[in-house]
Amino acid sequence: MTLNTQREKEPLRRRGSTPIPPAKFCQHSSWTRDPQLPSPSAQTNPEKPRTQRSHPPLGQSASYHPGDKSLHYRAQWSSDSEDDSQSDSDCVHRVVLLGDHGVGKTSLAGIFAGITEKDEQPGEDTYERTLTVDGEKTTLIVMDTWENDKLEGEDSSSQDDCLKVGSAYVIVYSVTDRSSFDSASELRITLRRARQAENLPIILVGNKSDLVRSREVAVEEGRACAVVFDCKFIETSASLQHNVSELFEGVVRQIRLRRDGREVVERRRSIYKRKESVTQKARRFLDRLVARNNQRMAVKVRSKSCHDLAVL
Ligand SMILES: Nc1nc2c(ncn2[C@@H]2O[C@H](COP(=O)(O)OP(=O)(O)OP(=O)(O)O)[C@@H](O)[C@H]2O)c(=O)[nH]1
């Protein structure tokens, strides 16, 4: 994996209120977007100026591909150093950020969007970006539209919309704020109620991991919560841009695992993942084997795997 810090084009931004044409979305495994089609937003707003931004580091795995003219209106980052010409699909998925005020949703969305300057606040609340993960392109539309504090009797339609439209959800809490952790659990329950029958990718994110001294929620608590609520877990620091690329690449992998099935995704990933040693692989295999016959072990393995965003 390489880090490419070349200048890149600004990612597409939308206002949350701007309707997104449903035809853009890949809710089904068979849907593939025609890369020759112009962006729907480019059609509705052809005059929209696009300024250049520098790409943030995005962990250690970012690389931008400015030569791709068919996707000129979108920014991309890649988890691979390989040539992307082999990419075989380009689906679009909505990822909704949920969580209390001040936990860092906008900051995470800003990093996703490629906003680097500290004092530059994201002006919009919906961002589109194409990621190349394990050699395949996927476009995410990250929605930072959640309004947490609807009062009793107030119209909750925007919350309902958020709970309906996502192909994946990122529930953020701050590790320095226990009440935000409690809210995250409530949000998980609300989401489960709203989308009962669906096996949605949901990632619980403990943000602000850099604030070591004011930590109120231990990493083990986050992990245990993810096991109980059957979702994935990662700690991030938007300030240090730690684990942010891993988070969004993990979202892509979780979407694909549900779309393609476990074997296909894991095989594809293994081609690209060369860092894992034979010993690590063998340990993981043995853990699973033992877990099949041991309920308690199964919980242990699940708690280990809940922070591996590349497996189901
Ligand atoms: N130290 C530290 N501060 C962070 C981190 N992420 C966000 N912040 C700060 O926390 C504050 C709130 O961040 P936002 O991104 O606006 O949080 P939000 O969840 O979008 O908040 P609302 O828009 O009110 O819902 C800002 O001052 C950020 O700079 C982080 O990882 N570490």
From TrEMBL:
Stored PANTHER family: GTP-BINDING PROTEIN REM 1 (PTHR45775:SF2), RAD, GEM/KIR FAMILY MEMBER 2, ISOFORM C (PTHR45775)
InterPro entries assigned: P-loop_NTPase (IPR027417), RGK (IPR017358), RGK_GTP-binding_reg (IPR051641), Small_GTPase (IPR001806)
SUBUNIT field: Interacts with Calmodulin.
Family label: Belongs to the small GTPase superfamily. RGK family.
Polar residues: bias regions: 27-46
Keywords per UniProt: Calmodulin-binding, GTP-binding, Nucleotide-binding, Phosphoprotein
Species whose genome carries this gene: Larimichthys crocea (Large yellow croaker)
SUPFAM superfamilies: P-loop containing nucleoside triphosphate hydrolases
Compositionally skewed regions (Basic and acidic residues) per UniProt: 1-13
Name of the protein in its database record: GTP-binding protein
Pfam family membership, one: Ras
CDD domains: RGK (cd04148)
Region described as Disordered: spans on this chain: 1-68
GO cellular component assignments: plasma membrane
GO MF terms, alphabetically ordered: calcium channel regulator activity; calmodulin binding; GTP binding; GTPase activity
